[in-house]
């Protein structure tokens, strides 16, 4: 799975707990988008999470 190029956010693992408290494995995937960004004046496609896009840490091309 890809990671955010800015904050290195990736996949989180844990347990899904049912009502009877039985546990099974669970995966939380981060909200990643493949966007074209300006890197050193040139446009480059990067995987960036939605929170980095909203906060303005990335300048889109």
Automatic annotation (TrEMBL):
Keyword Ribonucleoprotein applies: yes
SUPFAM superfamilies to which the protein is assigned, alphabetical: L28p-like (SSF143800)
Keyword set includes Ribonucleoprotein: yes
GO cellular-component term (any): ribosome
GO molecular function, one term: structural constituent of ribosome
InterPro entries: Bacterial_rp_bL28, Ribosomal_bL28, Ribosomal_bL28/bL31-like_sf, Ribosomal_bL28_bact-type, Ribosomal_bL28_sf
Single GO biological process annotation from the record: translation
Keywords: Ribonucleoprotein, Ribosomal protein
Coiled-coil ranges (or none): none
Sequence similarity: Belongs to the bacterial ribosomal protein bL28 family.
HAMAP family registered for this protein in UniProt: Ribosomal_bL28
NCBIfam families: L28
Name assigned to this protein: Large ribosomal subunit protein bL28
Species: Lachnobacterium bovis DSM 14045
Gene: rpmB
């Amino acid at each position: 799975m890809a990671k955010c190029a800015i904050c290195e956010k990736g996949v989180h693992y844990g347990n899904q707990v049912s009502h009877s408290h039985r546990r099974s494995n669970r995966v939380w995937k981060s909200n990643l988008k493949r966007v074209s960004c300006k890197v050193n004046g040139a446009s480059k496609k990067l995987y960036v999470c939605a929170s980095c896009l909203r906060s303005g840490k990335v300048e889109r091309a």
